[in-house]
Design a protein that fits this description.
- It catalyses: UDP-alpha-D-glucose = UDP-alpha-D-galactose.
- Its cofactor is NAD(+).
- Pathway: Carbohydrate metabolism; galactose metabolism.
- With 339 residues, the chain is of the alpha/beta class.
- The protein has eleven helices and 13 strands.
- The chain binds uridine-5'-diphosphate-4-deoxy-4-fluoro-alpha-D-galactose.
Length: 339
């Protein structure tokens, strides 16, 4: 029995593949390499001693997807494959809806036709928008996300809720807060494509001298130091939560399951706290300048992840400083690789 991991060479996907292999799952990756690179597969093999089966294609190609399901005995799927640039999604909304939702539906059709259950969906805390109260638990009211990217996550959740109910399937929706860091081996991490949008990759490149200065988007938020607050969760901790969520589905006695979990640390950190923690953890300077707020940003978001702890026996264990150390080791690896 195998687990299909779509987008399995991407940032969170590749870390999850490693954890799945560590838990003796056979893994099949489908990834179109649009936001990942083939060497990640070699690195997964180097870390685990096992090379997952890999198919390079776009999940919108139904006929190729059918062949994968014909060739393997698949018992579940973790679905990471999606475009994820918030800004880009606003100028290319149709591409985002098509890529993120059609590919999801194609996999679900195969599940329906072949009587397969156990589906895990990468969702995001973006489905809560700016919540009225902190911390955010799973009962916090959902708000329509501002970005098209965010909407593909909330539509994806709706599709899966209907799918679970209508076809009696076991489904888990995992709402990530802000994933950061890299594998302790420094062989996996977030691949920077172009100018990073996210905070930690930008901090990393600024410390490395690739970018001159970090722009801190706004210091007039109603927070302690005026900069916006997020819940930064270490990517390996996040990857482990996927294995726990999958095991729960596989071992469930129920035919129909709809699990929803917030995956965060429960602790909020401001932009300037992240900058300071990076400098301290790695003994490097991160020059920055204060700039106006970034459009569409919320003030504060951090999780109450008690439900995942209670039901999955999972909790984030890695500190911000530890996670940021792995980020820096990854940057050094990338630099060596490019030389
Ligand atoms: N930030 C900066 N400078 C930068 C980059 C970010 O100050 O160069 C700030 C942002 O303004 C924000 C914080 O750092 O306050 C975190 O920003 P990120 O872009 O790293 O993360 P976001 O919380 O904005 O984005 C996350 C996910 C998205 C998701 C979004 C929904 O990365 O996938 O939450 O709110 F869509």
């Amino acid at each position: 029995m195998s687990i299909l991991v779509t987008g399995g060479l991407g940032y969170i996907g590749s870390h999850t593949v490693v954890e799945l292999i560590n838990h003796n799952f056979d893994v099949i990756i489908v990834d179109d390499l649009s936001n990942s690179e083939k060497f990640i597969l070699d690195n997964i093999e180097e870390i685990t001693g096992k090379r997952p089966i890999f198919y390079p294609f776009d999940l919108r190609r139904k006929e190729l997807l059918k062949q994968v399901f014909d060739a393997h005995d698949i018992e579940g799927c973790i679905n990471f494959a999606a475009s994820k640039a918030v800004g880009e999604s606003m100028v290319k909304p149709l591409d985002y809806y098509e890529n993120n939702l059609f590919s999801l539906i194609n996999v679900l059709q195969e599940f329906k036709e072949r009587n397969i259950s156990n589906f895990i969906f990468s969702s995001s805390c973006t489905v809560y928008g700016q919540a009225d109260q902190m911390p955010i638990d799973e009962n916090t009211p959902l708000k329509e996300p501002e970005s098209t990217y965010g909407k593909t996550k909330s539509f994806g959740e709706d599709i899966l809720k209907d799918f679970s109910k209508a076809y009696n399937k076991r489904v888990s929706l995992l709402r990530y807060f802000n994933p950061i860091g890299a594998h302790p081996s420094a062989l996996l991490g977030e691949l920077p494509i172009g100018i990073p949008n996210n905070l930690v990759p930008y901090v990393m490149q600024t410390a490395a001298g690739i970018r001159e200065k970090l722009s801190v988007w706004g210091d007039d938020y109603p927070t302690e130091d005026g900069t916006a607050v997020r819940d930064y969760i270490y990517v390996v901790d996040l990857a482990k939560a996927h294995v726990a969520a999958l095991q729960k589905l596989i071992h469930s006695d129920e035919e129909t399951v709809l699990d929803i979990y917030n995956l965060g640390t429960g602790k909020g950190s401001s932009v300037l706290e992240v900058v300071k923690a990076f400098e301290l953890a790695n003994d490097v300077a991160v020059p920055y300048q204060i700039c106006p707020r970034r459009e569409g940003d919320i003030t504060i978001a951090y999780a109450n992840a008690d439900k995942a702890e209670k039901e999955l026996n999972w909790k984030a264990e890695t500190t911000l400083e530890e996670a940021l150390k792995t980020t820096w080791e990854w940057q050094k690896y990338l630099k060596d690789r490019n030389n």
